Amino acid sequence: MHISINHYTDNDREQVLSLWAQSLPLDAIAEDIFERRVLLDENFDPSTFLLARKDDNLVGFVLGVYARRMHLGDADPDGTRCWITAFGVHPTAMLKEVGTPLLATLENRFRALGKRECRISGYPPGYFTPGIDQQASAPLLEFFVSHKYEAFHEALSMDAPIALFTVPEKIVQMEQTLLAGGIEIRPYRRTDLVRFLGFLERTMPTDWVRVERSNLRKISEGGFRTDQITVVTHGDEIIGYCQFEGSHFGPFGVSDLHQGRGIGTVLLARTLERMRHQGYHNAWVMWTDDVAAKVYSKFGFTQTRRFTLLKKEL
């Protein structure tokens, strides 16, 4: 069958959203999210958002992104990486026949831009899932492996009911022990701003810093609250933090020098407690690993989905 490949235009919006929902039902997105996280992404390039048609019917799409306008720091240190953040083929179409020309065209465009490594997915400013769902998208995973993409990491999504959550007494005691040693876990204060940013820039991934800068700006505009961020202090130094947005838990991190002391456990518990106080009945984490999952599981989190992250040298 003949497949034509073209880049995205404004006239394609409704068809793309419909196909996205049909081909990726667990990851369908609303129009507002499509605008905010795709079209208004600073790095959006319509020439790497490709659509496949058969007889004028939209049967496939691939969303490719790269650091077009905004540098991505440690996620793309040499400026040679690119990402595929969404890939869908209509359920009635053949994945191989539609997907192969889509993928080949995108890879060629990335090569022409000087990109040398393509990853699925994990694009820092706007991924929809960490990678490919091992269960729900098994044929898609097999498709990419057949095109020489190699797995390099696994990620989990986890969810927990928190309507009845209370901080266990042993964690309260752990917190008191930490406090006696000069380590305090408390809500963020606006007077923490400069040293908080310094902590993030020294110890956390570039994208976490970007997210937190955005949230700190929202505090001054009334769109984010200080009690959505919990910090850990040791004297005048900030050594850890956690935040939540709605029922989404995280990011969440403690500096390497202070790990292994139970700080993360207390931080997690106090954040979940604050979420419950705000009326949330559930908490979810989009991306974690098997090591951190052991900590989350102590608080009722269970695995919802498991993803494979892939990459390929172009």
SSE arrangement:
Layout: E1 4-7, H1 13-23, H2 31-39, E2 49-54, E3 57-66, E4 81-89, H3 95-112, E5 117-120, E6 132-133, H4 138-146, E7 150-161, H5 169-180, E8 183-187, H6 193-203, H7 206-221, E9 229-234, E10 237-245, E11 248-254, H8 263-277, E12 282-288, H9 290-297, E13 302-313
Parallel strand pairs: 4-5
Antiparallel strand pairs: 1-2, 2-3, 3-4, 5-13, 6-13, 7-12, 7-13, 8-9, 9-10, 10-11
Helix pairs in contact: 5-8, 6-7
Descriptive report:
It is built from nine helices and 13 strands. By secondary structure, it is an alpha+beta fold. It folds into two domains: 4-154 and 309-313, Gcn5-related N-acetyltransferase (GNAT) (Aminopeptidase); 163-280, Aminopeptidase (3-Layer(aba) Sandwich), CATH 3.40.630. Strands 1, 2, 3, 4, 5, 6, 7, 12 and 13 form a nine-stranded mixed sheet that branches. It has a four-stranded antiparallel sheet with strand order 8-9-10-11. A hairpin with a 2-residue loop joins β9 and β10 (237-245). α5 crosses α8 (263-277). The radius of gyration is 21 Å and the shape is elongated.
